[in-house]
Amino acid sequence: MVPLSTYIGQILTMLLAILVGVGGIVALYVVMDLLIRLLPDKAQQRIRPWVYLGPLLFILTFYLVYPTLNTVYLSFLDKHSERFVGLDNYIFTVTNPAMRVAFRNNLLWLVLLTTFSVGLGLIIAVLANRVRYETVAKSIIFLPLAISFVGASVIWRFVYAFKPAEVPQIGLLNATLVSLLGAEPVGWLVNKATNNFALIAVGVWLQTGFCMVVLSAAIKSIPTEIIEAARVDGANGWQIFWRVIVPMISSTIAVVATTVIINALKAFDIVFVLTNGNRGTEVLANRMYKEMFHFRDFGRASAIAVILLLAIIPVMAANIRRFQEQEAIR
Amino acid sequence: MSDRLRRVVSAIPLHMIIIGITLVWSLPSVGLLVGSFRPKNDVFSTGWWTVFQHPFDFTQFQLDNYIHVLTAEGMGRAFLNSLTIAIPSTIIPITVAAFAAYAFAWMDFPGRQVLFVVVVGLLVIPLQMTLIPLLRVYNRLGLSGAFLGIWLAHTGYGLPFAVYLLRNFIGTLPKDLLESAFLDGASHLTAFTRLVLPLSVPAIASLAIFQFLWVWNDLLVALIYLGGTEEVAPLTLKLSALVQSMGQDWHLLTAAAFVSMALPLVLFFSLQRYFVQGLLAGSVKG
After folding, report:
1. What is the ipTM, given to two decimal places?
2. CB of B34 within 8 A of CB of A155?
3. A144 and B CB contact within 8 Å
């Protein structure tokens, strides 16, 4: 056992660190504001906005603008960032077999994660709208969103746990398979035919709640008269869903789908924890991490990052535009 | 058959689908929770669902796994590290963003619109684009493996979204309110702290929950800037290391995973409204 006193020491250090960090930032603004009060009124007027914006602009330049430009530059240099190599790193990313696997898997993530999260989210939102325990059902499906990808990965690793056929299964999925269907247990995360789907399923479990909540809010905002009118005209539930509800919330579906697409493109944690990209499960973000820390090839790692950026820009731009349209309506 | 009965019967498939889905969604977490309280040998030999054969036999549960992961495996320390990382990483960006949002909304200066569009535009940058250059600068400045370094990194990554959200909120506050405050001789700092901040509490609360959970649950940023430094490792880093080092010790992995989720779950149940709003708003964060 660790003695309690070490914890007390650590808690004090923690409180001190938090105090310094939080106090520091507040003090910064107050002191700067007091300082410019020494200036004449006119000058104060002109300088104050820049005092309020200064820290923001400094941090964004240092943490986003400069590194982005630098990464683009590094992607044209060799692994030690010493020699200019032209497009070699990019040629590597499209010709290397491991990279091809990563591209294929990201595409798989993109299609399956988006289809299933948005599809299930929509179905649950519509169905739950019709039962009295809606709040409870939605909370349960929403809950995984609070959990980290790492935690979710451990949860599902336990579900996928594999034991030889002779001994009792301790993983929920294999136990169901063996006892209900009488089939052989499957090594879900090692079997190349199943492992990618097993990983994406974790993502679906995490993201469906998000899609459900956003879509549910949109569905509830449809005026009931419209649904009633359709029903009076003789439309059945199926027709109401496809001809009334889906068209009316199509812009929300687009926002949700683009958000999930971005998450699929950036998939990292689940793969890193569950398979580390082995046995045909590599994805771009995990490959970039490997290039950085295992192969120490900063040129190739930078090229992968640039490819991610290029893939994300159009999706994100569409997402921000749609989001602003929605805000404008609200 | 009466109408009422027919309606009840026809609703049965609906209930079965919804209850079925919620079961599928909750069973994995239930399994984790049950497994984390079972003795090592039980976890290894039988499935967690077998505890329901004797639901009132409480001797099949114990706390040893938790005591072990919190002390011997260092999850207790990692919990404190996660707090030390997440609290300033939430407050610093929100403070910076709130001052900037106020300036964007209520101050006049050249380039206001352009600058705001540029800040929002930075949302498109995936954080992978920043890792290599920043890690190099951090190594030179001695900021890798330090709390200050990761606070500022999370601040940088969280700012575009925070400014975007707060500017939109603060911009909708009634104009007359601020103007009458200025007529009464209030300075910008007073107007900001006494008027704008209190009125923005709903937006700030949603943003704070979103950012706190984002940082608490983050693996990649911690892995890059704190990787390898045991003393400052947060829960996610520690947990993923445990998966690598003791992949089959399910009694410990389940307990460790639950330790890492405890705080987010408490926040979820106590602040669900802000939580949902924060997530809805957070859908555009990069």
Report:
1. 0.87
2. no
3. yes
